Amino acid sequence: MNTEQQVVRALPMADERVVTQRARIERARVLSVQKSSAAQRAGILAGDVLVSINDYPVLDIVDYQFHVAGERIRVSVARGDEAMAFELRKGYDEDPGMEFADDLFDRVHICKNKCVFCFLYQQPKGLRSSLYIKDDDYRLSFLHGNYLTLTNMGDVEFARVIDQKLSPLFVSVHATDPDVRGRMLGRKGPEPILPRIEMLADARIQVHAQVVLCPGYNDREILARTVNDLAQLHPENRGTYGGVLSTAVVPVGLTQFRDRLAALTNCSPDYCRELVAEAAVWRAGFAGRLGTNFVFLSDEIYLNAGVETPSTRNYEGFPQLEDGVGLVRQFIDDHARVARKRTPANPARRTATLVTGELAAPLVTELAATLSRLSDARVNVAVVHNSFFEGNISVAGLLTGQDIAAHLQAMGSDVGERVLVPSIMLRDPDRDVFLDDMTTETLASAIGRELVVVDRLPSAAAKALLA
Fold it and tell me: Which of 18, 281, 347, 373 stands 20 to 30 A from 158 (CA)?
């Protein structure tokens, strides 16, 4: 009988104890097995619980991807109360064909910091539990670009990052001054970051750094020092592959729910304009010495300053896009492509409303004018104020269903037949749910209009309107 086709025999192994780990079982359960894959040929079934590969415990999808690289692998699973093992043969880089419901089979690593700017502390009670989870997990950093502080990682986890070459990582630095960083993270003492990044750089791990800018804490001279310290760890300076590739600077977000929290100050328009000018000098120097702009300001800073965002070329491939660095430039460029399209021969005559937050209102208003011209329709814009969070929260991605509903209801007949909502307003894993747990179906019912969820780019709105 061919090894790939054999019915797997039960083997004596210590992995049977996994059956009792209920929390892990559901996360490590095989959701589906791809047709004609090595896993299917070997006899692995949907519902099996992955335990180990080549006798190495598998804690997450990163472990899975690392250990399945070979041409012959031994996969141990729990099927019901029985421990079983399979031998799979496949191409060296071929995926075995198992899909899982979650990336992490053990629990998410929780952040023990008490950052003065942490958004989770600025939320009201009563939201769904997932919104209060403070992750500081290096695996989510590697897989999804989540930022981690490196303060909650032990020697074993550092060793794993180095052994499995989990690069790049996205690291929340905030300040390279240990005292300032410790104070911002809510730690009892200094929190040096440079030695930890140097350790990663020496192991050929690349890093994208983040600074959440809190006026009075880590700005001015502290910020300049932080940016320059991190630039010293750029691969061009080090002469190595590993190092800090970029640094994003984002303004602190403040809500109305800051009772008994540290006093923080907004980044005002004048403040943002000064920062844009100073960053331009830094970027010019880095471009000459390192061949990269290195420091990138978030879109919110440019919008608050009322100045034009840099060109696409200046974003150098958008390495910090998930941190809100370059989304506006992509929007502007995509809008330009949409605007160049010809009006369709039989334009769809309809009315529509685009929903956005206050920060992006000028951009979306311009888009509405373009879509009106292209479709021969009346396209309105609903600029929704964030009454739920208040403070300086004006981005579209933090709007709630209840604020959107109230605004659209107040618009009355000015609301078009279709209401277009960008997908960034919805939250994973339930893509049809807003931050306040209102569903898109409930919102559509409340406003009595067709609701269409579209991607954040103008071309998606154009497609939805002209379809």
Answer: 18
Closest CA to 118 of 244, 253, 250, 11: 253
The percent helix, strand, coil of the chain (3-state, each to 5) is 40, 20, 40
Q: What is the pLDDT of residue 387?
A: 96
Mean pLDDT of 328-342: 93
Q: Which of 275, 293, 324 is the last residue of a domain?
A: 324
Please give the backbone phi and psi of residue 96, each rounded to the nearest 5 degrees, phi first.
-65, -25
pLDDT confidence of 134, banded at 50, 70, 90? Answer: confident
If DSSP codes are grouped into helix, strand and coil, which group holds residue 338? helix
Please tell me whether residues 393 and 439 are part of one structural domain.
Answer: yes
Report the CATH number that the domain containing residue 318 is assigned in CATH: 3.80.30.10
Number of domains in the chain: 3
Question: Domain containing 454 — which CATH number?
Answer: 3.40.50
Whether residues 319 and 350 share a domain: the answer is no
237-282, pLDDT tens digit by residue? 999 999 999 999 999 999 999 888 889 999 999 999 999 999 999 9
Beta carbons within 10 angstroms of residue 372's beta carbon: 16
State which residues form the domain around 40. Answer: 14-100
Burial of 140 (0-12, 13-18, 19+ CB in 10 A): buried
6 versus 409: the higher-pLDDT residue is: 409
Do 36 and 152 have their domain in common?
A: no
How far is residue 387 from each of residues 68, 303, 403, measured CA to CA in Å? 49, 20, 7
Q: Examine the domain organization and report whether 337 and 364 are in the same domain.
A: yes
Question: Which pairs with CB-CB distance under 8 Å and at least 24 residues apart come from 370-373?
Answer: 370/335, 370/338, 370/339, 370/458, 371/338, 371/458, 371/461, 371/462, 371/465, 373/343
Mean pLDDT of 19-46: 85
346 and 460 in a common domain: yes
Asked whether residue 265 is assigned to any structural domain, the reply reads: yes
We report the CATH number of the domain holding residue 62 as: 2.30.42.60
Q: pTM (2 decimals)?
A: 0.88
Report the distance separating Cα 232 and Cα 238, nearest Å: 7
For residue 28, pLDDT over 50 is answered with yes
